[in-house]
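Hello,

Our lab assistant flagged a job as stuck in the queue for most of the afternoon. It eventually completed. Since we weren't sure the result was trustworthy after the delay, we are filing this so someone can double-check. Below is the sequence as submitted and the structure that was eventually returned. Let us know if re-running is recommended.
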Amino acid sequence: METAEFVGILDREGQALATAAERAGTDVKVPTCPDWQVRDLLRHTGTVHRWAAGFVSEGYPSYRPDDGLPDLDGSELVTWFRDGHRHLVDALSAAAPDVKCWHFLPAPSPLAFWARRQAHETAVHRFDAELACGGTPSEIAPAFAVDGIDELLLAFHARRKSRVRTDQPRVLRVRATDVDGAVWTVRLSPEPPVATRDDVPGADCEIRGPAARIYLSLWNRLPFPAVTGDTSLTALWREKSAVT
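-- returned structure --
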């Protein structure tokens, strides 16, 4: 997927998140984040948006902490979220393709990284907000979901900080049933997971289902779809895979 596609998705998902939050009200609980109410969802995502925009617009060459969560609620908080989201979309849209700034996962460029990361960040939290609002959340496109699985398995959990580890070598297979070639092999051991896009025989456990369902289940938003083999590996994922 191209950077402009991610920026477009970020734009739509952020607007949908704000609309759902406004409809739900900021004191409603978020089913997929049991410790959060909608106000926490808006404060978190809005803070991340401003943090990310700072790297792109200011060209910060190294890590900088965010500015902390705002002491806002109700309609003021929704407006604050909308303003920060628009600032991020505008910053990404206006940035030079070769902008230099800090980023924390492998990517073709810093701009490509931030557009992709914030599109997925916002899409997952839009799903959270729409669940809190009630009804059925809008769908996630299979191609975008496959890209998100790539990001999670091949990048996030390739880092030293991943806690998805096993004492003895094990193999987890992830298979999207609605996208040709969307199969991942995740080799688990006492070291960080090593994931590849292939279909090597011999998995101890396989997760199988539509790409969007797998995407949300790997982000611990939905139950896993079909699982065959050793379910202790999916339990391990549930317990250890949270990204911070």
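-- support follow-up --
The delay was a queue issue, not a problem with the job. The result is valid. The longest helix spans residues 110-133. Residues 188 and 230 are 13 Å apart (CA to CA).
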